[in-house]
Amino acid sequence: MLVETTTKHVAVIGGGILGVSTAVHLLREGASVTLLTETLLASEATGRSLSWLNSAGKRPRPYHDLRMAGVDRYRTLYTSDPTREWLQFGGGLQWAQTGHEEDTLARHSYETAQAYDSCLHSPKSVTEVVPKVDPQAVPAQSIFNPGEGWVSLPHLVDFLMDEFNARGGKLILNAGKVTVDIKDGHATGVTTGDGQNYAADAVLVACGAATPEVVAPLGVTIANASPISMLVITEPFDHGLKAVMNTPRAAVRPNPGNTLALDHDWYESDITEHDDGSFSIPEEVVQELANEAAKLLEGTPDVKAASWKIGRKPIPGDGEPVFGQLEKVPGCFVAFTHSGATLALIAGELMSHEILTGNRHPMLATFRPERFS
């Protein structure tokens, strides 16, 4: 006997990594998908993320477990082709500020108690695990986490969009400010900035730092603590670095094309937000960050900033992810998190399953939007 089936249509608002990942997972499960983005793909936080794949440090166990599942999905992708220069696992190196050396020991103790691979190193031994780091820049104790990696999210978006297109997804670029359509209390589709309507059985809002703003007209409050941040890409040079480094004055990771990606937070007060929503920063401050990165590398090479992007870094009000359906608006789902890079693949997988089946995944139980009500 033939069983009649219907294809569920889902509208995804947001062309960043969470939106793209969920859209592809939806297509894999047989859904019809329209992906809408305000301007271009990866134009906001996804295009300026350090994208360090980890669950280092102290955080609630459910968040740690979700991040570890996220890293696992990246390992699966990595093993399918280890030659991809935009996804690598070279470990992570971290140490505390001068005068807070006890924080490094406490962090190491906590990580080992969670069975997180954490190794203490001295300046003499650190070059054995992180070649090209300057041992003179490293304090008496540092932590190396061998299982960590990094991804270039714009490259990952391109990779996933190849599958999106092959599976027949519909992409709407330059859609402007997209709103969620509601009828009888249920999400029924979306409307673009120029008034174009797209009907849908379900809607996912994955707009990074703008997510709380998009759901606010629906009567839903999600606390937003998204700060201004910057990512710098250097000019190409032969740096030889494989690991991510998170240090008191510069966070550094390898980047495709023999470049480095840099960020931190000490220069936030130097960033100016303009009336039109754009941001600027003195070029000498950008170069100062590049100089701080150079001090970490063997031989203190001449590191030059080639480009930089500034915008809001998505962080929910309590620091933890927000995933799931809005109880006030059935059919409308949200995905909003600081750890968008680490969680991108697993979040897309779990969210697509919830959207299509209605079954709430237990790993997302503590991350529901209603906790802010």
Automatic annotation (TrEMBL):
<dbReference type="GO" id="GO:0016491">
    <property type="term" value="F:oxidoreductase activity"/>
</dbReference>
<feature type="domain" description="FAD dependent oxidoreductase">
    <location>
        <begin position="9"/>
        <end position="352"/>
    </location>
</feature>
<dbReference type="Pfam" id="PF01266">
    <property type="entry name" value="DAO"/>
</dbReference>
<dbReference type="InterPro" id="IPR006076">
    <property type="entry name" value="FAD-dep_OxRdtase"/>
</dbReference>
<dbReference type="InterPro" id="IPR036188">
    <property type="entry name" value="FAD/NAD-bd_sf"/>
</dbReference>
<keyword id="KW-0560">Oxidoreductase</keyword>
<protein>
    <submittedName>
        <fullName>NAD(P)/FAD-dependent oxidoreductase</fullName>
        <ecNumber>1.-.-.-</ecNumber>
    </submittedName>
</protein>
